[in-house]
């Protein structure tokens, strides 16, 4: 039996090769190297001729599907080829080691001015394409770098900016040094040693001559909760460890910095330094934590705390920060660490339930923090232990102090630490970096967006909620730019391609950001209440969106640990990448970006100029925005609302620019080189929308150009004869002359569209060596001459056809004239012909009169009537001769004479009848009686006939009425059936979308479970498990007399060829052809992408 090789799903490798053993109506039996499984048709994909060959662009594969995409990426990854194209989208796999000569200056130079696809895939090619598009289209460009944490987004962003600056920068590396300054915004997580904990949109500005003139950075959503605590195995921001490891000894003593174990804000997470064998020797023993001494240092090719401190200090110096200003920055960072060591305990002496500083190092930490910030120690103590309140009585109200409880004081301390660090981070980016980067004569820019990828942990809070909200918006932008707009262009240009469906996440975005009912607005409303509660907020969300598909209770999570949460403790949101369970306990606290008024006023009066500047500028901004600070009351500044506004501005900016995409992929969870986890990578590809893009590119034309642009681009390479042509004709002539395959391009109304990679081949041909170009020009001229000669031939043939047409018309004109003469003759002589015919009829009547006269008894009367008849007959013959020969006679005279003859004959008839009336009176009476009898009979027959007709009419009316009723009922049934069919199709589409979402939820839960060691409830509809449709079909079949659902395809064929049982034979034929039809539908859907092959038969 011939076996069909297919890609079948696998829980470990994503897809493996198997062979079809048997085909069923809904499931296919597949044999792999490990097992035999039954898989749904939509889970199988055909295998190409050579599955061991890799290609630069996945669109060049024989079959375009997620299985071949994964296999091609795997083949290239094993050869250290980390970049792959999907049309114009770049997929980048993080190798977790340095690949030699991949990012050298020589490599960078090779990609300058090269079309996409000419050289192997590279992130430099995307940067070059963005620059060339900006120059050609006179429009700013954006590059969206996306992916999970640890996928390499930050490094890809660095290389793109390096390419732009070194290729067209007047001061090479000036802007690139900005990216090297990652100390304040990056940290170690369980998935990435150098994870960006904020988003940034870096703009490289160009002047009219397309040279770099400056840049600008917009940053989004710094993760402030990391400042006060980290998860196990994670670290705080790099700058804290850099100061502890690399700060000179004198400054270290001045700032009173020791090792990470001595600071509560660092000791909760990983306390080991990143270092190398060389830098490890430069770190003093007293600066190393216990874990560092026991487990040694952490190793990473990019992060080195000791050396990176020098890079950070140098970068700040490069941006014009003096030594004293750098010292103030380091003081603020150190003060944050010392603030974390200030602890509190209940004060038994305070009758109002206040608290005091805890014994131990808290007093020293408070004094050190106050000194570093330029504050009075007692004022700082008082602001941390109490808050200032103002009553509403009196002229201005009474001011009094309200003591804080232990947890309230801790929250005030953490809020102050977060405010100090976040405002310092904003200051570094906006007041130092952006101010130091000049913007002179900027016209266009190329922006690179690097923002945290989709995040999912076992414990997810407000930070993950905001990050995933951002990724939902970016995914929608990706769908609109790549899928919706692409198909709209095809339809507008009249290409007539099939519409492709994709899962739209607009309902999820509405759930998150809808005005009034969205989760962000509900959170803001809850935060404004006098006593906000996380449980009340959670219940409000569930009640407001009861029945929403994207929102569910935590107990419906596929991860077992999440099912232990109460309904008012979490939200399960089904994102585009899978379901994520958020714990809402800290949502309200993290959504408020304000300090107590007393603390804010204290910071504004600090002796440290930097601290004073940070809070003074912020207070001025709040006053401009209408956010007045009232002493004592905790003002509310929504973090979520601010982030939503920034995100909407970013999306609007992206929509106004040309867009390019880089999809970064994380190859494994352990962040080690040369380890390819297929199922993890496949999940990332699905979440990023790449599999849907493949379906579009399979029948799409991703590269396109206006006729005018192509004309202006290549007319300089051609002769003056050709360059003077119409742009559309110019393109057609050019493509014909080059001998391009018509399947590789298609002409629209205003543009020419190319298959993936074909525009690069065309561009390479046009920009080849002069000799080859001269031969091409000669081909074009030859083709143009041939075309024009063919046009002359066509014109000659057209003239000959016109001549033959005129001769044909001439012969037909004679026929027309003959018919006209015939018509005129008939018109002029018609009365003579009609008169002659009437006279001949009158002669017939004369004969009847003669016969009638024989009934007279008198011979004399008979003779007299015969003589009169002869006279009348002579008159008729004379008149006939006159009509034939006399041209003077006209129609009126002819009619009078004919009428006179008619009256004469009628008179003779009347006279004759009078004569024979007496003789035949008896006969007439008898005839009258006979006539009366016949009339009575006829009347009876007529009456019976009328009754019969009436009866039939009633029957017809009754039948018509019944048929009308039946037709009305039938029409209603047809309408109902159509509505039911549409409803069923809509429900099936919804079921398919939900099945896709369930699959993503399960894959995401498995990934979290693999990282945390938790369990997963496998209640999904797996491709290897029989679907609901299969069960329904099996149930229907069970009611039949013969159940063939478990019969093999080969068994059915054998029964058809050998069985004599008619009933069994008919059932087997029906089942056989049903399965064959399903199989051929699958073959047609997964046909080869380059050619239209003949439909293959089912496996034997």
Automatic annotation (TrEMBL):
Residues 1022-1034 have a biased composition (Polar residues). Residues 915-997 form a coiled coil. Residues 647-669 are annotated as: Actin-binding. CDD domains: CBD_MYO6-like, MYSc_Myo6, MyUb_Myo6. It holds the Pfam family Myosin_head. One of its GO terms (cellular component) is plasma membrane. The keyword ATP-binding applies. Residues 1013-1034 are annotated as: Disordered. Residues 53-767 form the Myosin motor domain. It comes from the Eukaryota. The keyword Translocase does not apply. Keywords: Actin-binding, ATP-binding, Coiled coil, Motor protein, Myosin, Nucleotide-binding. One of its GO terms (molecular function) is actin filament binding. ATP binds at residues 147-154. Belongs to the TRAFAC class myosin-kinesin ATPase superfamily. Myosin family. This is Unconventional myosin-VI-like protein.
């Amino acid at each position: 039996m011939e076996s069909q090789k297919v890609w079948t799903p696998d829980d470990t490798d994503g897809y493996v090769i198997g062979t079809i053993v048997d085909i069923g109506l809904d499931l296919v039996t597949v044999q792999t190297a490990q097992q035999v499984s039954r898989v749904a048709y939509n889970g199988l994909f055909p295998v190409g001729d050579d599955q061991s060959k890799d290609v630069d662009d996945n669109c060049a594969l024989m079959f375009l599907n997620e299985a071949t995409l994964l296999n091609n990426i795997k083949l290239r990854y094993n050869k250290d080829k980390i970049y792959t194209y999907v049309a114009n989208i770049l997929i980048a796999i993080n190798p977790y080691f340095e690949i030699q000569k991949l990012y050298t200056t020589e490599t960078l130079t090779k990609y300058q001015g090269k079309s996409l696809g000419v050289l192997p895939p590279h992130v430099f090619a995307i940067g070059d394409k963005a620059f060339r598009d900006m120059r050609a289209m006179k429009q700013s460009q954006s590059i969206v770098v996306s992916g999970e944490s640890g996928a390499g987004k930050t490094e890809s962003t660095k290389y793109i900016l390096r390419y732009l600056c070194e290729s067209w920068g007047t001061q090479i590396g000036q802007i690139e040094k900005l990216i090297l300054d990652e100390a304040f915004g990056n940290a170690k997580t369980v998935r990435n040693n150098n994870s960006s904990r904020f988003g940034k949109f870096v703009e490289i500005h160009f002047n009219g001559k397309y040279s770099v003139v400056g840049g600008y950075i917009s940053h989004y959503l710094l993760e402030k909760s990391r400042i006060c605590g980290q998860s196990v195995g994670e670290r705080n921001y790099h700058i804290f460890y850099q100061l502890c490891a690399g700060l000179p000894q004198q400054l270290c003593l001045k700032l009173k910095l020791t090792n990470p174990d001595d600071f509560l804000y660092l000791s909760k997470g990983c306390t080991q330094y990143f270092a190398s064998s060389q830098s490890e020797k430069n770190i003093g023993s007293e600066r190393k934590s216990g874990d560092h001494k026991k487990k040694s240092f952490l190793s990473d090719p990019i992060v080195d705390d000791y050396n990176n401190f020098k890079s950070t200090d140098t970068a700040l110096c490069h941006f014009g920060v003096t030594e004293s200003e750098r010292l103030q920055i380091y003081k603020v960072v150190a003060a944050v660490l010392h603030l974390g060591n200030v602890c509190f305990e209940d004060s038994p002496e305070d009758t109002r339930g206040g608290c005091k500083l805890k014994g131990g190092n808290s007093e020293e930490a408070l004094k050190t923090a106050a000194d570093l910030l330029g504050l009075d120690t007692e004022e700082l103590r008082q602001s941390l232990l109490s808050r200032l309140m103002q009553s509403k009585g009196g002229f201005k109200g009474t001011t009094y102090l309200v003591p804080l409880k232990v947890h309230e004081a801790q929250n005030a301390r953490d809020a102050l630490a977060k405010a100090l660090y976040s405002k310092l981070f904003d200051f570094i980016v906006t007041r130092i970096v952006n101010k130091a980067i000049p913007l002179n004569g900027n016209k266009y820019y190329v922006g690179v967006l690097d923002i945290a990828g989709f995040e999912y942990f076992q414990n997810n809070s407000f930070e993950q909620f905001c990050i995933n909200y951002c990724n939902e918006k970016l995914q929608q932008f990706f769908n609109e730019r790549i899928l919706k707009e692409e198909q709209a262009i095809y339809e507008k240009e009249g290409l007539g391609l099939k519409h492709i469906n994709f899962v739209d996440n607009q309902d999820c975005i509405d759930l998150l950001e809808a005005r009034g009912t969205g989760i962000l607005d509900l959170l803001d409303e809850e935060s404004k209440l006098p006593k906000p509660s996380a449980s009340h907020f959670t219940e409000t969300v569930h009640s407001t969106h009861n029945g929403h598909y994207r929102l569910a209770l935590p107990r419906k999570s596929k991860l077992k640990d999440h099912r232990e949460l109460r309904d008012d403790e979490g939200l399960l949101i089904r994102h585009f990448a899978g379901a994520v369970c958020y714990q809402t306990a800290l949502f309200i606290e993290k959504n408020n970006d304000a300090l107590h008024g007393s603390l804010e006023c204290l910071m504004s009066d600090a002796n440290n100029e930097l601290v004073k500047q940070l809070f003074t500028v912020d207070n001025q901004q709040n006053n401009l925005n209408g956010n007045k600070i009232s002493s004592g009351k905790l003002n509310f500044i929504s973090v979520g609302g601010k982030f939503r506004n920034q995100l909407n501005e970013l999306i609007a900016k992206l929509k106004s620019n040309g867009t390019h995409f880089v999809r970064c992929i994380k190859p494994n969870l352990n962040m080690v080189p040369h380890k390819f986890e297929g199922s993890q990578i496949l999940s990332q590809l699905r979440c990023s929308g790449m599999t849907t893009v493949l379906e579009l590119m399979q029948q799409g034309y991703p590269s396109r150009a206006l006729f005018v642009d192509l004309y202006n681009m290549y007319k300089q390479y051609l002769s003056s004869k050709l360059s003077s042509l119409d742009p559309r004709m110019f393109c057609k002539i050019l493509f014909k002359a080059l001998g391009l395959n018509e399947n590789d391009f298609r002409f629209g109304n205003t543009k020419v569209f190319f298959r993936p990679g074909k525009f690069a081949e065309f561009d390479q041909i046009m920009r080849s060596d002069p000799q080859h170009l001269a031969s091409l020009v000669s081909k074009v001229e030859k083709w143009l001459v041939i075309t024009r000669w063919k046009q002359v031939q066509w014109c000659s043939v057209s003239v000959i056809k016109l001549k033959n047409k005129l001769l044909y018309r001439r012969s037909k004109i004679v026929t027309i004239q003959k018919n006209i003469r015939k018509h005129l003759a008939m018109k002029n002589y018609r009365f003579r012909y009609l008169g002659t015919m009437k006279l001949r009829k009158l002669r017939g009547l004369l004969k009847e009169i003669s016969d009638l006269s024989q009934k007279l008894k008198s011979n004399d009367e008979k003779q007299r009537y015969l003589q009169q008849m002869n006279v009348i007959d002579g008159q008729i013959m004379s008149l006939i001769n006159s009509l034939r020969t006399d041209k003077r006679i006209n129609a009126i005279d002819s009619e009078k004479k004919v009428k006179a003859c008619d009256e004469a004959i009628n008179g003779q008839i009347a006279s004759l009848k009078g004569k024979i009336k007496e003789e035949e009176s008896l006969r007439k009476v008898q005839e009258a009686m006979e006539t009366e009898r016949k009339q009575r009979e006829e009347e009876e027959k007529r009456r019976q006939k009328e009754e019969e007709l009436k009866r039939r009419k009633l029957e017809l009316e009754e039948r018509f009425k019944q048929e009308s009723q039946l037709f009305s009922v039938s029409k209603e049934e047809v309408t109902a059936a159509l509505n039911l069919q549409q409803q069923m199709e809509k429900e099936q589409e919804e079921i398919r979308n939900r099945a896709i979402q369930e699959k993503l939820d399960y894959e995401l839960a498995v990934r979290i479970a693999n990282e945390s060691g938790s369990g997963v409830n496998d209640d999904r509809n797996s491709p290897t498990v029989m679907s609901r449709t299969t069960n329904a079909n099996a149930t229907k079949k069970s009611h039949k007399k013969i159940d063939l659902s478990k019969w093999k395809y080969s068994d059915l064929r054998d029964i058809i060829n050998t069985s004599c049982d008619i009933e069994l034979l008919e059932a087997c034929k029906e089942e056989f052809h049903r399965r064959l039809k399903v199989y051929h539908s699958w073959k047609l859907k997964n046909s080869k992408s380059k050619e239209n092959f003949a439909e293959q038969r089912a496996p034997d």
